[in-house]
């Protein structure tokens, strides 16, 4: 790539200021009060793509927040890269734990980011990462080095499970037709050891409600004689894992893809320190499914976690009450082989079976999605490997991630193309947490590496189609 480093150096301050403008708009998809800001963010992204030299820029309506489309089609014989990203962000709560305001991006140095990092909600997930693609395409168009066709799909509901995107992509399958999908919405091992995310876990997310008596009761008059839904809910949740921390739902592991011992040995080669992991989280000991390592537990094994639990009196002081209801939100991370709808059904049947007759149980499914794996022998993976090899001093390591981007498995069904996850975030970037940040090194390195993916993907594609 001619002049990519010079181009970044010349424009680095402008790139940063433009990203800051995007980060200042609170595009929180979970909260309907922010609808206007979501639309404003979509318009902002569309304008940025127009400024970068893209064509046919459109804000396409969906049942929910709109999808931004843009393209640059130079020759129908050349391959087409589809870039996906999301302009929505997680809520900023708990707001009081932010050291600087979440929607006023601020530069600060950290131990891991000695050159500085951008602190803001969405800095890493995903505005900072999607914006690298906008700047990469600007460079390719501006310097007349765009080697292939490109399309953009930037959505606004990823953080709430992409509910409108599934029907949307089926309707617009032709418009978004592509040869490979490129996403920067994941992470890598460290700034000196790049990695390419080769897997995402699936998800089944449910909410449960336990009802005991028809009203809150005096715990002195009734306590001990009427089932307390909070006590019962806790007993039921405790039964979901056994003493080896296996999940007890019958059939849960039935179709789980089991890694071969070669694959597990390969995985174990990735640099990882349990001691540093524990230290970073301030825990004395790790926890998890027996016979698996921390890296395996958090990427290739399915899990079940309570995300929130509530009921009864939580105000100041003490109130003696036996509550009528108790609630919990529960997520299950899935791996290849597991179908989210089947898992939701298995959970529902088992959870209801755990309840004594003294309470009523309602299980409400939220969103879900299947796991995804990128084949290491795909053209896209090979091109990504070559791209990192050009811009980093170390070659990249393939590594599955524990996170989820639920729409990705549907992409492979609808478009029959592979998804390449070139994420530049770090685990320590605190995505979804207070003080989310994104390293300046990572931001600029992403802009530098992406054009090489275009180059190598096009070259490999031409060789294969010669
Ligand atoms: N970008 C993340 C997913 C991610 C981050 C994957 C880092 C791998 C490494 C995405 O925005 C996200 O937060 N996904 C959610 C699921 C969604 C349905 C809310 C998740 O993984 O919890
Ligand atoms: Mn994301
Ligand atoms: Mn996220």
UniProtKB/TrEMBL annotation:
Alphabetical UniProt keywords: Hydrolase, Metal-binding, Protease
Keyword Cytoplasm attributed: no
Gene3D superfamilies, alphabetized: 3.30.70.360, Zn peptidases
InterPro entries found in the cross-reference section: Cyt/Met_Dipeptidase, Peptidase_M20, Peptidase_M20_dimer
Peptidase M20 dimerisation domain ranges (all copies): 199-357
Pfam families noted in UniProt: M20_dimer, Peptidase_M20
Claim: Iron is one of the keywords in the record: no
Domain of life: Bacteria
Protein name, entry field: Acetylornithine deacetylase/succinyl-diaminopimelate desuccinylase-like protein
Organism: Wenyingzhuangia heitensis
């Amino acid at each position: 790539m001619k002049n990519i480093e010079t181009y970044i150096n010349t424009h680095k301050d402008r790139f940063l200021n433009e990203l800051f403008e995007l980060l200042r708009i609170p595009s929180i998809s979970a909260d309907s009060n922010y609808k206007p800001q979501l639309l404003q963010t979509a318009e902002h992204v569309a304008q940025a793509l127009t400024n970068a030299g893209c064509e046919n820029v459109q804000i396409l309506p969906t049942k929910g927040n709109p999808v931004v489309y843009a393209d640059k089609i130079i020759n129908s014989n050349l391959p087409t890269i589809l870039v996906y990203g999301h302009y929505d962000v997680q809520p900023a709560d708990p707001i009081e734990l932010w050291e600087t305001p979440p929607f006023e991006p601020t530069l600060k140095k950290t131990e891991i980011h000695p050159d500085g990092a951008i602190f803001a909600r969405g800095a890493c997930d995903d505005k900072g990462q999607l914006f690298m693609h906008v700047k990469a395409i600007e460079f390719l168009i501006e310097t007349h080095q765009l080697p292939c066709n490109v399309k953009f799909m930037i959505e606004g509901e990823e953080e709430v499970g992409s509910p409108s995107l599934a029907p949307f992509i089926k309707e617009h399958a032709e418009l978004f037709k592509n040869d490979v999908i490129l996403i920067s919405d994941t992470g890598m091992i460290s700034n000196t050891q790049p990695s390419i995310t080769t897997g995402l876990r699936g998800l089944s997310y449910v909410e449960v409600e336990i009802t005991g008596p028809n009203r809150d009761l005096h715990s002195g008059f009734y306590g001990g004689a009427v089932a307390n839904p909070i006590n019962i809910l806790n007993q039921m949740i405790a039964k979901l894992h056994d003493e080896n921390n296996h999940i007890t739902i019958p059939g849960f592991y039935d179709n789980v893809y089991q890694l071969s011992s070669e694959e597990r040995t390969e995985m174990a080669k990735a640099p990882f320190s349990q001691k540093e992991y524990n230290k970073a989280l301030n825990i004395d000991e790790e926890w998890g499914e027996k016979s698996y390592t921390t890296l395996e537990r958090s990427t290739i094994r399915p899990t079940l976690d309570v995300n929130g639990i509530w009921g009864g009196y939580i105000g100041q002081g003490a109130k003696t009450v036996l509550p009528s209801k108790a609630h919990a939100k529960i997520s299950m991370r899935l791996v290849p082989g597991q179908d989210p709808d089947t898992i939701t059904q298995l959970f529902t049947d088992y959870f209801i079976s755990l309840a004594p007759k003294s309470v009523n149980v309602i299980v409400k499914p939220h969103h879900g999605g299947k796991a995804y794996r990128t084949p290491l022998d795909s053209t896209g993976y090979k091109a990504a490997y070559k791209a990192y090899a050009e811009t980093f001093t170390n070659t990249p390591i393939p590594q599955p991630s524990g996170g989820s981007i639920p729409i990705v498995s549907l992409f492979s069904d609808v478009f029959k193309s592979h998804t390449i996850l070139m994420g530049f975030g770090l685990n320590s970037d605190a995505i979804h947490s207070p003080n989310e940040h994104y390293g300046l090194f990572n931001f600029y390195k992403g802009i530098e590496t992406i054009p090489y993916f275009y180059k190598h993907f096009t070259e490999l594609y031409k060789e294969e189609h010669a």
